[in-house]
């Protein structure tokens, strides 16, 4: 009898923790590093600048490829332009058509290779007007034929190369010591 009473008490206590009419999760967004935005039924998801291959930041005058996903849940559309006030120009090559109920992946040079059958586009910001460092986001505007424009705040993405762990060989043949 006592275990049944304890069980019933636990059920009643836990029922008080239910979400009710107002939840905390209804306003949460996905935990991704990149910027996201949408217009009508077209969305830009997880937009980042590819991690720089020659250092930890992009120098003024250099080019920065974008990594992101474009998704379309509405009628056929097409990416017609990409701009940023931080770049002199942007180049779009590959698949710019966005058929209904599809996704197109933009991959940079450091990203994992695209899966077989995956639709891809390459988007590069050229002639950066200032240094772009980690932690800084820049506005990038994507213009679609039907959905209109979507402006997204875009950070530098993660480094796809594995970081060396403590005790791993480092260039030059030396290893880090214990520190005791």
TrEMBL record:
SUPFAM superfamilies reported for this sequence: DR1885-like metal-binding protein (SSF110087)
Highest rank taxon of the organism: Bacteria
Basic and acidic residues composition-biased segments: 157-166
Signal peptide from the UniProt entry: 1-15
InterPro entries assigned to the protein according to its UniProt record, in alphabetical order: LpqE-like, PCuAC_sf
Pfam families assigned: PCuAC (PF04314)
Region (Disordered) residue spans: 91-116, 156-180
Protein keywords: Signal
Protein name: Copper chaperone PCu(A)C
Species per Swiss-Prot/TrEMBL record: Saccharopolyspora aridisoli
């Amino acid at each position: 009898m006592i275990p049944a009473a304890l069980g019933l008490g636990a059920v009643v206590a836990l029922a008080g923790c239910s979400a009710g009419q107002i939840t905390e999760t209804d306003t949460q967004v996905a935990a991704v590093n990149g910027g996201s935005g949408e217009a009508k039924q077209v969305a830009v998801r997880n937009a980042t600048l590819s991690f720089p291959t020659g250092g930890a930041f992009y120098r003024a005058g250099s080019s920065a490829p974008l990594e992101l996903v474009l998704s379309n849940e509405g009628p056929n559309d097409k990416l017609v332009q990409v701009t940023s006030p931080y770049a002199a120009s942007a180049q779009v090559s590959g698949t710019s058509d966005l058929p209904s109920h599809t996704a197109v992946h933009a991959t940079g040079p450091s990203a994992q290779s695209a899966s077989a059958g995956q639709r891809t586009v390459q988007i590069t910001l050229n002639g950066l007007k200032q240094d772009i460092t980690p932690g800084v986001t820049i506005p990038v505007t994507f213009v679609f034929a039907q959905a209109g424009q979507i402006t997204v705040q875009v950070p530098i993405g993660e480094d796809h190369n594995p970081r060396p762990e403590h005790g791993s060989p480092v260039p030059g043949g030396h290893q880090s010591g214990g520190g005791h």
